[in-house]
Amino acid sequence: MKSFAALLVLASGLANAEPVPLFDGKSLDGWKIQGADYWKVVDGVVTGQSDEKKKNSILWTKKDFTDFALDLEFRFSGHIDSGVFLRHMNEQIQIGISGSLKRDMTASPYIGSKRGYPVEAEGVKELLKEGEWNSMRIVAKGNHYAVTLNGKEVMNYDSDTARDKGPIGLQVHPGVEMKVEFRGLTLEELAE
């Protein structure tokens, strides 16, 4: 019986698609900008940088995704308010300072309809390297989200407002003059 269960786990892992790059290293092909035109490619890095107008800007994938594991690296310095939207604007994994809480909430889920963070990622202060590249893995499987930061799982959350399918977005938050960089964006679609 035990070997049958192991075989099922192995088979489900084989059903997952191979990770594919979401960014070609040269252009924003496959992406679209909503809001201010703050996104560009600089030296092979997706860069979101606002100006003195401090407007909202989201870089969305043109493709929708269901269940996935998203791997990326991000870098920032100073006060930023960014994040990764999961399938729609209501659900986000925060990067940087929360505008409402006035403290770093990196790797925590922000749920817009709840106007806050239902759980806080653990151990981020010790893991986050400001001004350096940080790795993040976000797994969205159904309504469950898990985040790994620099190799350590820091957050698990079951959302009651998750959508089944939608794009992935990168944010430059309004009201903040900031710069955030992303690279190594790859996505593995997970079997249902």
From TrEMBL:
UniProt keywords, alphabetically: Signal
Recorded superkingdom: Bacteria
Pfam families (UniProt xref): 3keto-disac_hyd
Signal peptide from the UniProt entry: 1-17
Residue ranges annotated for the 3-keto-alpha-glucoside-1,2-lyase/3-keto-2-hydroxy-glucal hydratase domain, each copy included: 19-187
Alphabetical list of InterPro entries matching this protein: AL/BT2_dom (IPR010496)
Name of the featured protein: Glycosylhydrolase
